[in-house]
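Supplementary Note 3. Input sequence used for the single-chain structure prediction.
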Amino acid sequence: MASQRAAQIANHLYPQGMLQNQVAIITGSGQGIGAETAQLFAREGATVIVQDIDSNKAHAVAQAINDSGGKALAVPGDMLNATHIDTLVHQAAEFGGGKIHIIVNNAGFTWDGVIHKMTDKQWDTILALHNTAPFKLVRAAAPYFRVKDGAPRCIVNISSTSGIHGNAGQANYGLAKAGVTGLTKTIAKEWGPQFGVRANTVAFGHILTRLTAAKEEGAFVTTPDGGKVALGIPKAQKEAAGQMAYADIPLRRPGTATEAASAILAVASPLFSYVNGQTIMVSFAPVDLYGPGY
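The predicted structure, written as discrete structure tokens, is reproduced below.
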């Protein structure tokens, strides 16, 4: 497979790992794409800070990494809590020997609704989680990125093709994910020239996660006030879309969480050392998963 060949090439070029001696904060890494990214980064030599709102899942991922010979620390908490963000940065730097090299802003979820029915709470929560929280994390970590020690540093902000093409039922998510691109480009322009910091966006299309599974499977997230938000796409809408859901994907299939994590690794790795301020789509998927009449 192409992915195996790529891994063989990377192992030849970087036998100790592409992220050797680097400290990486990965938000939302207790499951799904984030967990796969944490494990992949660790295998490439990074010291990984596993952040997730679910404490049990965060600790489980960190434990799995440590048990397999990697180095990881779980720092669970809510990214909507400014105090937690400060704690996250402090503990990451302390665990990493005073250094932070990589931030992957991955934490997030969808809270869908058509425009005329969307509540202020839905709107405000999604923008706070996908825009304000990443900004606050990057701002808090600034002292560890605005340095000139010759070490590589990069920020990878996770977006979605919904932020590029739009998607019915996702006005809040589409706007938030479009905003991620602006944040990324600004970081690249402010911190690239003097400090060599790279910032890129990875915009995912249809990846197999709890956000694209059938809503009837029962996945949910708990909001800070104790409410529950059901995740996924209504089964009827998925069935109505049928194979059309993959019509604009060149490979005609959804991607896996492992494939998504591999894309994040590529962007964070030295293989992308001259790529800055860009948005990489993985993969093209403008078809509305919700279909007409959502």
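The radius of gyration is 18 Å. Residues 139 and 145 are 10 Å apart (CA to CA).
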